[in-house]
């Protein structure tokens, strides 16, 4: 069985992973299920309309008036909307293709690091792994984010063997784009530098150039959005101005905001649940 799967190679893996994801997508309604999609969708439509990332958020009193979340997913949505029109189904089908590609990358990464048996298990396991399938229909950045991380690792492993500068440039670009989706990637960079300098074999000069390339390409990737955030919010926030806003404000200020928003005895108010937004 394993030898038969090995002979079929990545095309069979890609097709099976795609079929599973497309089947899941068609079980979903053409709407969002989680609230952050409201922000991404609104920003994407503003991009398509030539209005930047739009003015503020719906249903939130604590966010800035300008878009303050990471930019990667709205840009992706805008690209899909521009080609196919504003359709969640179209977005999910595109994400199904990207998710199937992710399974192929997992297979190739495992093949380089381990052996054929491990690679086949990793690839086909990821093809049917419920969480990865679920990401296809989430309408969040996680599916693309995971693909970018896998691409970055793939290019790093190729650079380790081939030592071509363009490979480390591509790896750095993938990690930089991943930062524009989820800034948690910043925590990975010290380990990446350690791997480049001390784990990989080779001349010290070559490893230093690779590490410097990672830093430079990442800075260049993040710079346009960082400049945009500075011009709008007046602070250096490389990815998410909203996150910086909450981290920078004191606990007392947040407590004051929460207390101000609470109803006073005798006031009339309406309880709104998520179902009111989801329809």
Summarize the model shown.
The chain contains 13 helices and no strands. With 279 residues, the chain is mainly alpha-helical.
Overview of the molecule:
The chain has 279 residues and is mainly alpha-helical. Helix content is 71%, strand content 0%. The protein contains 13 helices and no strands. Helix 1 runs parallel beside helix 5, helix 8 runs parallel beside helix 10 and helix 9 runs antiparallel to helix 10. The protein is flat, with a radius of gyration of 22 Å. The C terminus is likely disordered.
Described by the principal axes of the CA atoms, the overall outline is: flat
Structural class: mainly alpha
| Biggest pleated-sheet summary | none
Low-confidence stretches: 247-267, 269-279
Strand content: under 5%
Helix content: over 70%
Query: Count the strands?
Result: 0
N- to C-terminal distance: 47 Å
Order of helices and strands: HHHHHHHHHHHHH
Features of this protein?
0% strand; flat; mainly alpha; disordered C terminus; 279 residues
What order do the helices and strands come in, and which of them pair?
Layout (H helix, E strand, L loop, with lengths): L1 H24 L10 H13 L23 H13 L3 H26 L2 H13 L1 H7 L5 H21 L2 H15 L9 H11 L4 H30 L7 H8 L2 H11 L12 H5 L1
């Amino acid at each position: 069985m394993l030898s038969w799967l090995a002979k079929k190679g990545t095309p069979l893996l890609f097709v099976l992973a795609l079929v599973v994801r497309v089947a899941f997508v068609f079980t979903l309604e053409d709407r969002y299920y989680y609230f952050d999609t409201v922000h991404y969708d609104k920003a994407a439509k503003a991009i398509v309309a030539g209005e930047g990332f739009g003015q503020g958020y719906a249903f939130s009193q604590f966010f800035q008036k300008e878009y303050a979340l990471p930019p990667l997913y709205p840009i992706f949505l805008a690209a899909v909307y521009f080609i196919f029109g504003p359709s969640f189904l179209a977005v999910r089908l595109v994400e199904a293709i990207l998710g199937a590609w992710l399974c192929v990358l997992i297979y190739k990464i495992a093949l380089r690091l381990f052996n054929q048996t491990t690679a086949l298990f990793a690839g086909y396991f990821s093809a049917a792994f419920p969480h990865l399938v679920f990401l296809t229909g989430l309408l969040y950045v996680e599916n693309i984010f995971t693909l970018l991380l896998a691409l970055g690792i793939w290019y790093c492993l190729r650079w380790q063997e081939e030592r071509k500068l363009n490979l480390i440039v591509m790896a750095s670009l993938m990690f930089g784009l991943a930062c524009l989706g989820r800034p948690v990637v910043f925590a990975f960079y010290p380990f990446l530098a350690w791997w480049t300098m001390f784990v990989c074999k080779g001349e010290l000069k070559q490893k230093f150039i690779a590490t410097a390339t990672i830093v430079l390409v990442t800075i260049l990737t993040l710079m346009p959005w960082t400049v945009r955030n500075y011009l709008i919010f007046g602070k250096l926030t490389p990815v998410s101005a909203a996150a910086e806003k909450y981290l920078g404000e004191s606990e007392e200020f947040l407590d004051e905001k929460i207390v101000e928003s609470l109803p006073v005895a005798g006031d009339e108010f309406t309880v709104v649940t998520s179902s009111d937004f989801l329809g």
